[in-house]
Amino acid sequence: MKIVHTADWHIGKVVNNHSLIEDQRTILNDWLAQTVALKPDLVIMAGDLYDRTLPSGETVQLVNETLTKMSQELACPICIIAGNHDSGERVGYAAGLLSGQGLHMAGVPSTEIRKVEVGDADVYLLPFSDHLTIKRLYPEETIHSIEDATKVQVARIKDKWDPSRVNIILYHGYVTAGAIEGAGEDLEKSDSERPLSIGTSEYVPHTVFDGFDYVALGHLHGPQQVGSPRIRYSGSPLKFSKSEVHHHKAFLEIDLDKKADTIEVVKHELKPDKDMRIMRGQFEDLLQGQSDDYIFFELTDAYAQHEAMNRLKKRYPNAMSLEYVALENRQRQDLKTKRHEVQATPVWDQFAQFYQNNTDQELSAFQAEIVRDIFQSTLKEDKA
């Protein structure tokens, strides 16, 4: 069975006031052309179809165009779930009607977990949800975290599944191969991924999905496996933040053979017309270049340059941001030095300096002695 796995399209994404809508149109057309050529048995999109729950009209139009082309050009079922950036109701709208066209959309969780039969395979769709929503669906269960909620949903699937068939699940969230105490340390994350909750309560151990032939994950933007070659994030098709400039964006081709108990994974690279990257160097040297790429500038000049960003934009119209890394490093070092000096200075002398700065008068010898005695007495009491 051949599967194409993609996720995290974030259609309508705006980065540093730059709309990526045309870049997304181009890369999704490229993705679709490559996918059609592969002749898959199933296409999976594992959440975050949209970047915002209330998308612009232009965004909705591109989503509609893309889904229509997919339905017309792909001769296989397409399964899509809502992610944490999506409106579940929007993704699930007209799901019954679209299923007749081979487009299976799951936006809102239900006690009747959506199952799509594809030949010898059963595909289970788990749209993103917080644990409180799942708790309301299963009031008889003890649910205090996303891990608890996911365990309950997976248990419901396993109560009814046929283990002799190819069992596939779509899931959007943090799945970790490590212990929950150090959850997430094994995952490659980026700045553009919105936190799902506070602390480690958002993480789900990969062992929750034991028994599935393939687990198609969404949420993390870098392609990676989690604990097993059968549990994978496809990553996003485009770079969405400075922290993603090193990513090699791709989608996954998965070949499953249930009888032989094998899985083969091929990454198909996606290359945009305009890359997102970092340029580092002296201001005058950078002014000699030119590019339409999305550039994060890191200037190594010792001092700020006059109208640096405006001048750079004449050569780099898609300049995203500018940092003076050498200057900031020096400022951090100066701050560290001052902090060390302050820590090495007796607190009564710090008070005397504070008094002088705010009154333009120095403490008399008598006043200074009283202040020193008070602080020394207080410090002794604290140690006791």
Per-chain topology:
Layout: E1 2-6, E2 14-15, E3 18-19, H1 21-38, E4 42-45, H2 57-73, E5 78-81, H3 88-92, H4 95-99, E6 103-106, E7 114-118, E8 121-126, H5 131-137, H6 146-160, E9 166-172, E10 174-176, E11 203-205, E12 214-218, E13 224-225, E14 231-233, E15 250-257, E16 262-269, E17 276-281, H7 283-286, E18 294-299, H8 308-315, E19 319-324, H9 325-344, H10 347-359, H11 365-383
Parallel strand pairs: 1-4, 4-5, 5-6, 8-9, 9-12, 10-11, 12-14, 17-18, 18-19
Antiparallel strand pairs: 1-15, 2-3, 7-8, 13-14, 15-16
Walkthrough of the structure:
- This protein is an alpha/beta fold and 384 residues long.
- The chain has two domains: 2-269, 4-Layer Sandwich (Purple Acid Phosphatase, chain A, domain 2), CATH 3.60.21.10; 276-327, no CATH class.
- It has eleven helices and 19 strands.
- It has a six-stranded mixed sheet with strand order 6-5-4-1-15-16. It has a six-stranded mixed sheet with strand order 7-8-9-12-14-13, with no helix packed on it.
- Helix 1 (21-38) packs parallel to helix 2, helix 5 (131-137) crosses helix 6 (146-160) and helix 10 crosses helix 11.
- It is globular.
